[in-house]
Structure formats: C-alpha cells, structure tokens
C-alpha cells in the first residue's frame, strides 16, 4: 500500500510538472521565436529569395542591393544617430573627419519625427542666410523630408562648393514657411571668438571677459587657452563662456576645455553602454586648473548639444561654473563607427554620457541654474545682428529690430559676475589685517 501510494504521488507530481511546463512553454513560445536567430534569419532569406524570383524588376537587383537596403532600414529604426554606411559613404565620412567638406553648415537631427536644426555652423551659408536652431526642415530641393532620415538629408545638403540647394523650414510657434536658397561652401571656421566675432578679446566692463565657443573641433581647446591668456593679461576677474547654439563636436576637446578649470584627476564625464567593453568608461582631467579663482558663467540654450552639454554639465555639477540661459538640446549619446569587411561601416549608438554626479544628458539636456528665456523673435534678431553684412540683407523694419536687439542672457550674466566680484572684494577686504588697512 505504501509503495503504491508513493508511486501514485510521484506520477501526480510529474503530471503537474508537465502541465505547468506546457503552459509556460505555450506562453513563452512567441517571445522565444522573436528572439531566436535561425528562424528569423531563415525568414529574412526567404523574403530576399522571393523578391529576387518574383519582383517584376528583380533582374535589376543584386543580393548586395537587397542586403544593403535591409541593413539601412533596420539600423535606421534604432535612433536618429545610428546608420549603416555603404563603402562610398564611409569613405566620404572619413574624408570629412580629416578635413573640410562642402555643405551649407547645418547640424540636424530628427526630433518629434521631424527633421530639426540643432544649430547652424557659425559663418556658414545657412548661418548667414538666417537659419536658426530649432527650425524644422520640411523640404530639401522641393522634396518633402517627412520620411527622410538624417543620413539622407545630410547627403542632399552636402555637395561641391559653389553649387546650390534650396531648403524650406517651418519656424517653431509660427505657421510661416521660409525658403532659403543656399550656396554650398567649404565648412571650416574659427570656433573661438570674442564679443565682436573676431579674435582680439577685449576686456569688458568690471573686468569681465567674454569668449564664444561655436563648436568643438581639433583646435578648440588650444584656441580657447590662447584667448584666456589674452584676457588674463588684462586682469580678468570673471569669464562668460558662451556655448549657445554650439552643436558639440569632439569628446576629447570637451574634456580638454573642462581641464582648464578643474584639478588633475577630477572626473569630467563617464559613458555607460550595454556590451561589456562599453559598460563603463570614465574620463578624468589630465591637466590642472589654470584659473582656480576665476568666476565662470556659461551661457546655453536649446541649440547647445553634445560636447557643449558635457562641458556645461560637468562644470555645473562640480560648482565650477554657474549655468544661465535655457534648457539644452539633450544629445548625449556615443556613436561608435564599426568598419565591416566589405568596406562598409556601421555607426551604432553604443553608450550614453553621464555628468560627474551621474545625471544622464541624453533626451534630457542640462537645466541652467538660472533660466532666462528668449523669444524666437529675439533670437532671430540677435542672430541677424551677428551676421557680417546681415543688416544689408534686411528690409527697414527688420533692420531696426536687429539694431535695437538686446542680449538679455548676456546682460544677466554680466550683472551676475559683477555682483560676485563685488561680494568677493568685500569679503577679502574684511579679512585683511587692520594694520595694513590703516597704512593705506
């Protein structure tokens, strides 16, 4: 009896396990199929073969054509920054990083499913024509950009210097569509400028220096250091570093800019990814704080992105700079270029940037310590004011508006530094020995 009972109990347990296992399998089977390599690769190959055999113009297509098209579509659905590049395009990309290129000077992305200008490059054809950060590019040479990704749009905007391209943009908070006929040029500009757009760097009121960094290129940190030396020689007590409409650039340059204001070994930025080799990487200052007592204000806005956000986020976290302006763009992801055997390459978002306090930048941006909003009209007027010869391109009402335009954010930054310097002078004065005060 006892053995029969035990056998019966064992059979019951096995049947229950079988029933439960079957239910789990049935529930997990669809998810399992979605994540299984071979069935899905088989499906992919079946579709390719069917297209080759039955498509009416299939004889015009090679297997490589179909695979490249599939890879472009697959990678293009991941995010606006990932991309599959054919060999010819990869060669062009390498040429761009090694020197100048022909284009109109627009850094673009897809935001809210619309092709959007992050920022026009300083002194570029787009900048001189009056294209602004935040403009929505709705047409390129008459073709709608509704389903156009960043790679295709960039390819249409680039070309031989001297050739023309027409873009139609919708300005935020306005139903107006503006059309710009742009002549492509070699995009190579000075990235470090003074208040007048030059490289003289005169001292401002109350011993306040001003430097505008338009993007992060190979010479940016070196040029910035030279500008700082000029201002320091004039007795600079406060610095306004203008990163508004700075679309970013090279990571190593962002780190070197931070190093000018940080002690050796200080964490500047970290990256975190999914794969083990991209899991965590930290970038620390290798230089030394050359201006430890310098009060720094950084100006940012919606056109400040990528490397500009790394600098402002780092120096804000560490209390080394006071950030003023508007919320930044929120482009804080790392793109790795992975060459492939046939000469093509995969540009893949592999990690995200984090500030020293581990705040994520991507899709959030940097929130200023003091938010000072500016209207689209004010930004447009200031942009026109900065363009060399910009007044001549305007009708009288717009010319007058640009002439009287005020840079409220810059004014507030100047007032802030003046107040900080006055406070520091009073504190330092109160700490001096009485004998020295009496001897004056």
Task: Describe it.
There is one protein chain. The protein is an alpha+beta fold and 440 residues long. Among the domains are: 106-186, Pdz3 Domain, CATH 2.30.42; 192-333 and 350-425, 2-enoyl-CoA Hydratase, Chain A, domain 1 (Alpha-Beta Complex), CATH 3.90.226.10. The protein is 39% helix and 22% strand. The chain is built from 13 helices and 19 strands. It has helices spanning 2-34, 37-54, 63-76, 87-98, 125-129, 150-157, 220-233, 251-259, 307-317, 376-386, 396-403, 408-431, 434-438, and strands at 83-85, 102-103, 106-111, 114-120, 136-140, 143-144, 164-170, 177-183, 185-186, 192-193, 208-213, 238-242, 267-273, 280-284, 295-300, 322-325, 333-339, 345-354, 370-371. The chain has a six-stranded mixed β-sheet with strand order 10-11-12-15-16-19, sandwiched between helices. A hairpin with a 6-residue loop joins β13 and β14. α7 packs parallel to α8 (251-259), α8 (251-259) runs parallel beside α9 (307-317) and α10 (376-386) crosses α11. The protein is globular, with a radius of gyration of 28 Å. The N and C termini lie far apart (113 Å).
Could you tell me how far the N terminus lies from the C terminus, measured between alpha carbons in angstroms?
Answer: 113 Å
CATH topology of the domain at 192-333 and 350-425: 2-enoyl-CoA Hydratase, Chain A, domain 1
Residue share in β-strands? 15-25%
Q: What is the CATH architecture annotation of the domain at 192-333 and 350-425?
A: Alpha-Beta Complex
Structural class: alpha+beta
């Amino acid at each position: 009896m006892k053995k029969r009972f035990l056998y019966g109990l064992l059979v019951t347990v096995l049947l229950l396990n079988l029933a439960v296992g079957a239910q789990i399998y049935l529930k997990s089977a669809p998810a399992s199929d979605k994540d299984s390599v071979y069935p899905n690769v088989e499906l992919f190959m079946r579709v390719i073969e069917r297209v080759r055999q039955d498509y009416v113009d299939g004889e015009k297509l090679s297997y490589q054509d179909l695979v490249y098209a599939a890879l472009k579509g697959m990678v293009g659905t991941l995010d606006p920054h990932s991309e599959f590049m054919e060999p010819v395009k990869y060669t062009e990309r390498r040429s761009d990083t090694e020197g100048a290129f022909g284009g109109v000077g627009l850094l673009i992305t897809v935001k809210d499913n619309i092709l959007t200008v992050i920022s026009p490059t300083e002194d570029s054809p787009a900048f001189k024509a009056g294209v602004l950060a935040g403009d929505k590019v709705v047409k390129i040479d008459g073709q709608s950009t509704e389903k156009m990704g960043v790679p295709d749009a960039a390819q249409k905007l680039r070309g031989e210097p001297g050739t023309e391209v027409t873009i139609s943009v919708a300005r935020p908070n306005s139903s107006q569509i503006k059309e710009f006929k742009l002549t492509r040029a070699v995009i190579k500009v000075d990235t470090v400028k003074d208040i007048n757009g030059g490289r003289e760097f005169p001292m401002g009121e109350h011993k306040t220096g001003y430097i505008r960094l338009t993007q992060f290129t190979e010479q940016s940190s070196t040029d910035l250091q030279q500008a700082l030396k000029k201002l320091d020689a004039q007795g600079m007590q406060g610095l306004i570093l203008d990163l508004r409409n700075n679309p970013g650039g090279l990571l190593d340059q962002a780190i070197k800019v931070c190093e000018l204001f940080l002690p050796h070994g200080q964490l500047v930025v970290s990256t975190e990814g999914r794969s083990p080799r991209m899991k965590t990487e930290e970038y620390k200052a290798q230089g030394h704080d050359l201006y430890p007592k310098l009060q720094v204000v950084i100006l940012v806005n919606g056109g400040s992105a990528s490397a500009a956000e790394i600098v402002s986020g780092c120096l804000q976290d560490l209390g080394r700079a006071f950030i003023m302006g508007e919320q930044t763009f929120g482009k804080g992801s790392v793109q790795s270029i992975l060459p492939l055997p046939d000469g093509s390459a995969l540009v893949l978002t592999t990690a995200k940037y984090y500030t020293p306090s581990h705040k994520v930048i991507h899709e959030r941006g940097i929130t200023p310590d003091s938010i000072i909003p500016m209207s689209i009209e004010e930004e447009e007027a200031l942009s026109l004011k900065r363009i060399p010869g910009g007044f001549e391109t305007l009708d009288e009402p717009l010319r007058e508006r640009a002439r009287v335009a005020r840079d409220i954010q810059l004014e507030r930054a100047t007032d802030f530094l003046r107040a900080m310097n006055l406070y520091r002078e009073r504190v330092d004065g109160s700490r001096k020995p009485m004998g020295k005060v009496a001897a004056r």
